[in-house]
Design brief:
By secondary structure, the chain is α/β, with parallel strands linked by helices. It is 43% helix and 16% strand. The strands form three sheets. The chain has a six-stranded mixed beta sheet, with helices on one face. It has a six-stranded mixed beta sheet with strand order 7-8-9-10-13-14, with no helix packed on it. Strands 11-12 form a two-stranded antiparallel sheet. Strand 13 and strand 14 form a beta hairpin. The longest helix is centred in the C-terminal third of the chain and has 24 residues. The protein is globular and about 50 Å long.
Length: 289
């Protein structure tokens, strides 16, 4: 069940998904600035934050996990499931916050709010299965990204399957720094396709009922964006090309949702860093020959 977190008062930007039952769970929780909308969404299903038993995180970027520590403070019994790589950053989010503040500067608090630590005793490393859902690593968008697949074929694929804001059909493969990996991302898309899900639940934004085609279009779009950077596009050229695509594929409000869900210049920065690291690795290997 989708809960629109109404980020900065705008719909279709960030979604959380409620797994109802005897032990209610959320897949991703959004940032602390969205807790009021999260509470309202839970209330529509007769629940409060204190009723939640589990929080399953696809990754620890602030738009997905920023409120985790705040929720645990309100609900000390909440178990937070996250990739082993993400655990130390939730226990001590100071490095995560410092990195985000460099990116967002004066907008950090308005966008994300408090980034509270999660006590270590509340954390569970994701390994194999969580609450009856298959869980497996899907790096690419982030090194610590994981996806979840339920028995009914619903796949909570996080950001590895890109941003799609209806009524547009444009997929934006958001690529923020610091650890975008295009090759790993393609393998992650393979891993989702191999599982043949019945539907994808996107945090940005909503349920996709034709997952096979969506996965392949995400792959194509990732190659387009990566190819522009590899081909030498400047930041201005990259941003302008993405903005033109949005103008052609989306109405102005929907285009604004896309850019709020994934700032275009950050994708340029993430891809530049990726290719720079590849060049450094290749140079290092050559030096040892």
């Amino acid at each position: 069940m989708l809960i629109d977190l109404q980020h900065l008062g705008r719909s279709r930007v960030i979604a959380s998904y409620l797994l109802a039952g005897d032990e209610p769970a959320l897949v991703d929780c959004g940032p602390t600035t969205c807790i009021t909308a999260l509470e309202a969404g839970l209330a529509e299903h007769g629940l409060a934050v204190e009723d939640l038993r589990h929080l399953l995180l696809t990754h620890i970027h602030l738009d997905h996990a920023g409120a985790a520590g705040t929720l645990v403070r309100r609900n000390p019994g909440l178990q937070v499931h996250v990739s082993p790589v993400g655990v130390p950053h939730l226990v001590d989010p100071s490095r995560l916050e410092a990195s985000a503040r460099r990116l967002y500067a004066d907008d950090f608090d308005r966008f994300w709010g408090e980034l509270a630590p999660v006590p270590e005793e509340n954390l569970r490393e994701v390994e194999g299965e969580v609450l009856g859902l298959e869980a497996w690593p899907t790096p690419g968008h982030a090194s610590h990204h994981v996806s979840y697949l339920s028995e009914d074929g619903t796949c909570y694929s996080g950001d590895v399957t890109g941003v799609l804001v209806r009524p547009s059909s444009l997929i934006a493969p958001v690529c923020p720094p610091p650890d975008v990996d295009v090759e790993a991302w393609e393998r992650s898309l393979d891993s989702i396709a191999e599982r043949k899900p019945e539907r994808l639940c996107l945090p940005h934004f909503g349920v996709v009922e034709e997952p096979a085609g969506h996965v392949e279009r995400t792959r194509e779009r990732l190659r387009v964006w990566a190819g522009r950077v590899k081909g030498g596009a400047s930041e201005e050229e990259f941003v302008r090309a993405a903005e033109r695509e949005l103008e052609e594929a989306a109405d102005p409000e929907t285009a604004a949702v896309y850019t709020q869900a994934g700032t275009i210049w950050q994708s340029y920065a993430g891809l530049v860093r990726y290719f720079a690291k590849k060049e450094e690795a290749a140079a290092g290997e050559a030096a040892t020959l």
